[in-house]
Amino acid sequence: MPFDQAQATEIATVLRDASRAEILPRFRRLAAGEVRSKSSPIDLVTDADEAAERRITAELERRYPGCVVVGEEACAVDASLLDRLLGADLAFVVDPVDGTANFAAGVPLFGCMAAAIRRGEVVAAWIHDPLGDDTAIALRGEGAWIEAPDGHRADLKVARPVPVHQMTGAVSWTWMSEPYRSRITQRLSRLASGVQFRCAAHEYRLVASGGAHIVVYNRLMPWDHLPGWLLHREAGGYSARFDGSAYRAEHRDGGLIAAPDEASWHEAREALLGE
User: Fold this and answer.
1) Of 62, 140, 201, 225, which residue is least crowded by CB atoms under 10 Å?
2) Domain boundary among 129, 155, 181
3) This model's pTM is above 0.90
4) Where do the DSSP E strands lie in 99-230?
5) What is the CATH number of the domain that holds 243?
6) What does the pLDDT look like over 136-169, one tens digit per residue?
7) Which domain range does residue 63 map to?
8) Nearest Cα to Cα of residue 150 among 8, 9, 1
């Protein structure tokens, strides 16, 4: 393992410092030219995203010489960076501001995420809440917890299993293609309730802490999902792609459902996406 708990805390501090220096000072203070569209009008980037990613990347490279850092914003400029992810002895994915649309709109619901990958295996994850000023951390095989700046920790545990009609879920259908898009939007009422944060960072923290039962996603960019996937797994949850196959660092599509256990996964999948 490349990380022990002390090193995990150190990287949480890297995310916290970047959030304090580059993200929070720009919150609700962005000028018009500091918010831009990327692939579509709902795919945004801000000066905060870019500045925080540069700072985090530089610090990770300083602490772990020779590591590969794959940041969302760097990949928007050079997509070939993704090709370096799987073969590296140690790589990091970084999403400096997950929930950029919220951040740009002044909505206080966004996060700063990272995951460590060792030869294709996700071994550590961090989801920092800049406004709450704490970090959800997971180490493969060692569990998941929320850690505050003063060192206080609270273990994370997924919700207990319940029938589908009692489940609360965060279901993101924005990037789904047909027939899944129509099928899933017509079936959301099969759940007890739904949430839509426009922020995977907080949706993953929610299911990992037992505040909701399931999350459902379609597009699987590694910086959006590797941190939350490991966090949920180490909190006791079960996840798989829509076809039931295991989610891996190389996957970019195929969907993902995370649930409290395998039986709940099958029930949620059948209720929302089954024929």
Assistant:
1) 62
2) 155
3) yes
4) 111-118, 121-129, 134-139, 143-147, 153-155, 168-171, 193-195, 214-217
5) 3.40.190.80
6) 999 999 999 999 999 999 999 999 999 999 999 9
7) 5-155
8) 9
